[in-house]
Structures are given as C-alpha cells and as structure tokens.
Amino acid sequence: MSEAEVDPRLAVIGRRLSGIPNILAFVSSKGGVGKTLLSVLVAAELSRRGLKVGLLDLDITNPTAHIVLGANIEEIVPEEEKGVIPPDINGIKFMSIAYYSGENPIPLRGIEITSVIREVLAITRWSDLDYLIVDMPPGMSDELLELLTYIKKSLLILVTTPSVLSLVSAKRLAKLIEGRGRLTGVIENMSSSPTELVVELANKLGAIYLGNVPYVPMLEELMGRPYEMLNTQVGEAVSRAVNLLKLNLREPS
Ligand SMILES: Nc1ncnc2c1ncn2[C@@H]1O[C@H](COP(=O)(O)OP(=O)(O)OP(=O)(O)O)[C@@H](O)[C@H]1O
Ligand SMILES: [Mg+2]
Fold first, then answer.
1. pLDDT greater at residue 72 or residue 150
2. CB of 41 closer than 6 angstroms to any ligand 1 atom
3. How many CB atoms lie within 10 A of CB 242?
4. Which residues share a beta bridge with 160?
5. Strand order in 154-160's β-sheet?
6. What atom of ligand 1 comes closest to residue 223's alpha carbon?
7. How many A from CA of 37 to the centre of ligand 2?
8. Does the domain spanning 3-248 belong to CATH 3.30.70.1230?
C-alpha cells in the first residue's frame, strides 16, 4: 500500500506545496536558540524586499511566531474556501495552530502531533509564494521527522548559539540530516562575532555560514513589530544572512 493510500492527506500536501519554489525551515535540537525570532525576521526581510512570503508555525504544542509577527490571534479568524486561506499579517501570509488554540495549552503526543501537522499542511492554501518560511519546534521528534519525510523540498537552516551545549545539540541534529542534501545554512545567534567552532561546523556540513546575529536586548520591547526589529543590529545581520541565502537559492520568477 502506498503512503497516499494510508493517509490521503499526504498527496494533498504535495499538491499544496508544489508551486512554492523555496521552502526554508529553521531547525535546532536545542530550545530557545532563536528559531522563532529569526524565522519571522527572515520572512519580514524577504517581504520588505517585495517578495511574496508565507510563514508557517509548525511548533504545534507551543506556537509563538504570532507574538513576534504581531498577529492578533484573539481576533483573526482565517477565511475558509476549499481549504484555509492564511491571513495576511504585516505583508506575510501566516498560518499557525494558535488561531484555533489561542494561548491555551496543547497537550498532544506522537501520532496526534503528526496528525495536526498533516491537517494544517493539507488544508492551508498558500496561493503563489516566492518563499515559505517554517518555524520548527526544538528537537528531533515528530515535527522534524514529518518535515524531512513529507516536505521533501524544504531546505533547512540550522540555528545555534556559540555555547557548548547548543553546539553539541547542533552537531547531533546535523548527523540526522546530513547527507540528505537539505542542510543549506547555519546561523549563529546571540553572538557578537563569528565563532570558529560554528564556522567550522558549517563548513564540515557543506552548509553556508550565514553569519552571527548579535544579542540585542531591546528586541523585547519591539515584540509584534518585526519591521522595527529589522532596523536594529539584529536586522542588519538578518539582511546579510538573507543576501547569502538568496545567492544560493532559486530566484523566484
Ligand atoms: N539575537 C537576539 N537578541 C535578543 N533576543 C533574542 C535574540 N535571539 C533570540 N532572542 C530572544 O530569545 C528568546 C528565545 O528565542 P526564540 O523563542 O526565537 O527561540 P526558539 O529557538 O524559537 O525557542 P524554542 O526552541 O522554544 O521554539 C526569545 O525571547 C527571543 O526574543
Ligand atoms: Mg520557537
């Protein structure tokens, strides 16, 4: 029996994503290294450059991208028409389980998480996008395995801080994904200058070192205003990372 016969949503997912030239997922096995912040800011930077951008929060049990993006999930109800149309938030088409769960706890496990991911991917109508940015939860469990298996064309951006613990986790995750030709970039967050160990890791993995992003405490005051965040030193680093990424990705027509 083929996978599509086991779960017909898998074929639908393939069709839904088929028109998107670039899918970039921000991953790390360590939590709190900046995946959400950076994925939202990369989406905002691409949108600021006039590109059509979607953002998908795949952190099913603890979605937070809406907070950085400034999506008022209490009031927004995604429109439904042969699927769900991701609302436009500050120029970015944004989809998140948070529209439905609010800030309530979402205690799901294993197969339930997989099912929610497939449902979200199957129902979301992205229209034509140049880029889809995916904010992943930490770890190497259900969400990452779903992404690797069913969003085959997604390219991965590994986020790490220069701390030893983050680097050990990054190397572990790298072992899982290396050899699949999917790891595209490594970004060093909360770091005032490039760290040799992170640059070496990127080189060893055949990924682009996308640079270091400094720690800027003021970002906390700018939550919900991603375009203002782009005007800080973090934004400068994000812009440099996007330049490097765009050099290496398919240019949207
Ligand atoms: N460069 C930075 N400067 C200032 N604050 C930062 C920076 N990067 C991340 N942060 C802050 O650090 C915290 C963790 O970041 P974030 O939530 O993006 O990490 P994460 O990897 O998505 O976490 P999780 O693994 O839990 O999903 C947030 O409060 C975020 O605003
Ligand atoms: Mg996160």
1. 72
2. no
3. 22
4. 188
5. 88-89, 92-96, 53-57, 131-135, 22-27, 154-160, 183-189, 208-213
6. 31
7. 7
8. no
**How is residue 238 written in tokens?**
């994000």
Please, which residues have CB less than 5 A from ligand 2, an ion? 35-36
Helix H segments across 181-232? 196-205, 226-229
pLDDT digits (tens, 9 = 90+) for 93-131: 999 999 999 888 888 898 999 999 999 999 999 989 999
The answer to whether 209 and 30 have CB atoms below 8 angstroms apart is no
Gap from CA of 8 to ligand 1 centroid (Å): 36
What type of residue is 87? P
**35 CB less than 6 Å from ligand 1?**
yes
**How far is C-alpha 88 from the geometric centre of its chain's CA atoms?**
17
| Beta-carbon contacts of residue 78 (< 8 Å; ≥ 6 apart) | 84, 85, 86, 87, 95, 99
Give the atom of ligand 1 at the shortest distance from the alpha carbon of 135. Answer: 22
Domain spans of the chain? 3-248
The position carrying tokens 């490097």 is: 244
Give the number of the atom of ligand 1 that is nearest the alpha carbon of residue 220.
31
* Rounded CA separation 82/64 (Å): 27
pLDDT attached to residue 122: 93
* 101 Cα–ligand 1 center, Å: 22
Do 37 and 68 meet the contact criterion of CB atoms below 8 Å apart?
A: yes
